[in-house]
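Office hours follow-up: a student asked to see two folded examples consecutively, so here they are.
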Amino acid sequence: MNTLKRLIVLVGVVLGLLVAGCATPPEPFHYQPDNELKPGPGILTGEEGVFTIYGEPAPAKKEEPNPEDASPDEPVSP
């Protein structure tokens, strides 16, 4: 009977500590969506927070003639 009282007191103390631990006020939560960039510098952006690519711009692509638009008299280049 003595061990049963000790077990009940121990369970009561543990439950009391759990309830007291959950009673702390919550910290403020600032929601930030996952699909948006986080403010500030990142791994690749450095301290400026900007990723800059240096070099010459790529040349503009030339439109290739569509064989369906060519007249039957004109040869189609491969």
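And the second, which I mentioned at the end of office hours:
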Amino acid sequence: MRVVWIILFVVVGFSGCGKKEQAAPVVTTPTFYKGADVGWLTQMESAGIKFYNSSGTAQDLLQILKDKGINSIRLRAWVHPTDGWNNTTDVVNKARRAKDLGMKIMIDFHYADSWADPGKQPKPKAWESLSVDALTTMVYTYTKGVMDTLKLNGITPDWVQVGNETNDGMLWETGRASASMKTFSALVNAGYKAVKEVSSTSQVIVHISNGYDNSLFRWMFDGLTANATNFDIIGMSLYPSYASGGASNWSTVNTQCLTNMNDMVSRYKKPVMVVEVGMPANQPDMAKAFLQDIIAKTKSVTGGQGLGVFYWEPECYNNWQGYGLGAFDDTGKPSVAMDAFLD
């Protein structure tokens, strides 16, 4: 009887005195992606360009960017560039460096041998004579080949753009959207299929420029939706310098962009991402204000559906390649503009 009593005492004592309060639920904040497109990195290094941290010490560019709050890297992919830069081997080399620093990776397929943008979407030379069906197959084959090569090198892109600033489609004239949205849709679907076959977790982006232009975005994504196009994220560029009023009108441009982002989320049920921004390198204080504002506005998008903001080639300085919208000063150090990415 005494033994039974002791056991009962222990059980009751444990259940009463040892009761623990329920732990408060853990609240996690979704990651906001602060990125930089550094497609010129290896070319600049090959030309002897050096990069310096804010203290003036020479350092690897990606580490400098990471220390400024950048957590994601965007890389353009060209099919057969004449000088080799941005071909598959070069993309893999840069992606590996970013991965080694724990950064997320976005691959931006231009489907061209050089630049593709709103004013030009040239076919790769080797693809020029292909029929519509053959071109669609080639988009699939090439995309899958690059994705497979990345995977073999231990790299799984977090995001993949099927086309760059495709305001009127890509692979002109065959894939010009204003001539045949159906054909452009088929090309996007071919790229989407290739990406997902290699990595089901990689998110596919359709990217057009002028993020402040709601009518352009509605035209494009109404057309793609009507043609059963597969994509996961709506990507946009935002360069106040090219908008009405110029760079100094950035506040109005940002407000218009936020309105557009919220409309995209509401209308198409897709998250949005600002995959390119840039401001005059010689106006760093204004650039910082612009960046702080567009980052805050993107974070405020309805339902947390504004995923991130990427600066396009911030490392450019001394007017590299004639580009004046970088965010490094003339000594090769990040300007105050880059402080906008710090938490």
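Two things to take away from it. The chain has one domain: 29-341. Residues 1-20 have pLDDT under 50 and may be disordered.
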